[in-house]
Amino acid sequence: MCGIVGYVGRRMLVPVVLEGLKRLEYRGYDSAGIVYLQDGALVKYRSEGKLQNLENILGEAIGAPAHIGLGHTRWATHGAPTTENAHPHSDCTGELVVVHNGIIENYHSLRNELLEKGHTFASETDTEVLAHLIEEYLEDDLRAAVSKALARVEGSYALGVLWTGMPDTLIAARNHSPLVLGVHDEEGGFMASDIPPLLPYTDQIVFLDDLELVVLKGDSHTIYSLVTGDKVEKEVKTISWNSAMAEKGGFKHFMLKEIYEQPQAIIDTVSGRINPETGSVELPEMNLSDDELAGIERIFLVACGTSWHAALVAKYWIERWAKIPVEVDIASEFRYRKLLIDEKVLTVSISQSGETADTLAGIRLARDLGSKIVTICNVVGSTMTREAHGTVYTHAGPEIGVASTKAFTSQLAALFLFTLYLAEKRGRMEADKRLELGRELINLAAVIDAMLPRLQEEIKKLIESYYDARDFLFVGRGLNFPIALEGALKLKEISYIHAEGYASGELKHGPIALIDKDMPVLGLAPKDAVYQKSISNLEEIKARQGRLILIGTEGDEHLKCITDDVIYLPEVHEELNPILYTIPAQLLSYEIASRRGCDVDQPRNLAKSVTVE
Ligand code: M6R
């Protein structure tokens, strides 16, 4: 989705904003623009395509003596991804500019009204309406004009506004689209749609809430409610992420770096929460009393994409160990179906970003129906964490690659902790078992760390016979069925190979018709409770000449009788196989996409944070 960066302060504007936009590239975009104030006039540059194109046309303007301005990366919704539609958008005078994320739902009627009043439009975007609407209300107070304009708007926005009449001030506002401020006494004031652009300058972050407006200057920020017009006092939070975490650190792609960061992300997610002596789990930030935990009759897990796959794994864990019935929903379906939810239901949202529009809408609905909300989330202070009653943070650090990797395995680690916690609180698990499973989880990071380089080498060689496939199937059973779905999603999103994931037992109900000598099938076959069943399904694929790649347990020689292409993984407790078996699926997708020359970190049409429905 679109990205906003705004800055006012002592530094040169263009490098700050350009670097900030680069740090938002992962969000996905198709055009970009920048505007700054120099000698009392606004100077605007915009271009289609990658930021490099913008940098090229900026030329010497990179060194412009400007200290206030805005930048934007646009992911087209209204109007093609052309230069004319790229942000910033101006009013009729050219003295006021707006950058905007989100969708102005009533832009048609507003545009017609403004056209009748004589405004002229230069783009097809919904955003441009905002510039003209603010112009309509502007006398000498920009804050008042923006507030009046936003009162007319239906839809979602994160907004940055600059006007020549107030040359030391940026206005920011948000409603249903993320926007954060970075503040620093000497560096100045920053605004951005996500934290990474702020990291080189400050760790002091202000998370805006919906319907808030900010007057941002180099040495101050004042927040107002758009509902009451009153000032709002907000905490400035210190975050633990640093600038290097949002850089590639010698890796070719963020995705590969993030695959390699998984052991650390798991350690950071687990450590301090599980007592290695007793297996007892502490999750105080969940904010649920023992009585509330005891009263849960059902759990709904709500998420999108990769996070939904984490939910599917968690259903197996929670039902088995905590013995609570679990329903798993794709958030975009959940929010539009008749929900049988009341105060005895616990709703758990799972989201890396904490900003996904459908998941947010889902938890709001569940909360209105009386359910307690817990979110499993990676971004401190994100909207979802502020709207939930409690949070279990994953500590994966910033995830920049669009394809989710370390966020997913950290979600699984957090959900496993969550399972042990529920099982303990509800008296469903013996201390010995808890201790055994807790220790296995703690040890898993070291197992993954040790196998990663060897695994990548093996997979790199293996994919030479598969990288040009047109289709791919992933199959798994039980806990590894969701991993088959996740493997297929990873492959299709970054390599553009058509890939599907299936429960192995489901093959003969249709998909087996696809199997022939040209169809690669990746089979997950660890030595687990359903191993024999999995092997039978894999034999059926072999009998139809499917091209099998098998991932299984070290020492399982039988797999070699089925295919030559076997990848062995160390044996861990079978409950933790979903975390372990995700890693080769990620590496396979990464190596294939890389081999095909795809843009691994920013796959076409995709956005990292899906903040519109
Ligand atoms: O931030 P979220 O976890 O809520 O995002 C949900 C999905 O958009 C996300 O998991 C997506 O499917 C992955 N980035 C794909 O790799």
Our measurement of the CA-to-CA distance between the termini, rounded to an integer number of angstroms, reads 11 Å
Count of runs of 4 or more consecutive helical residues: 18
Q: What's the CATH architecture of the largest domain? A: 4-Layer Sandwich
Number of domains: 3
Bound molecules: 5-amino-5-deoxy-1-O-phosphono-D-mannitol
What does the overall shape look like?
globular
Low-confidence segments, given as residue ranges, are: none
Order of strands side by side in the largest beta sheet? 3-2-4-1-10-9-11-15
Mean pLDDT: 94
User: What's the gyration radius in Å?
Assistant: 25 Å
Strand content: 15-25%
> What share of residues is helical?
25-40%
* Topology, number of strands: 25
Q: What can be said about the biggest beta sheet?
A: 8 strands, antiparallel
The CATH superfamily of the largest domain is Aminohydrolase, N-terminal nucleophile (Ntn) domain
CATH class of the largest domain: Alpha Beta
Overall SS class: alpha/beta
Query: CATH topology of the largest domain, anyone?
Result: Glutamine Phosphoribosylpyrophosphate, subunit 1, domain 1
